[in-house]
Amino acid sequence: MTSENFIGLSVVSGFFVGLIFALIGINEPEFIILFTLVVTAVFYLIVISGISLFNWFVGFENRRFNKNQLEDNLEYYVSQFKKREEELVRVLDYIKRIELGQEEKEKQSLS
Question: What is the model's pTM?
């Protein structure tokens, strides 16, 4: 989730949390609006602080991935999936042969 999306989510969450608590505890409409705005602003400030600290302490050079290694891993996984698929096809063919053999035996025993 990008930081802009996280800020937007937190502001909307703060608005609704503030609105719910204001409606529960306050009866005057002016104070409901004021309380909702204050809680929304507090959520916004907390999230901005958190994102700033995250960007300050986490180096983005460490978070980059190696494209060649990722491609090699993906190719390995694709080859493993192909092997598993071939094995599954062989198992299903074996099961079909067993079922056909049992059906033929049943037909022979009935005749």
Answer: 0.52
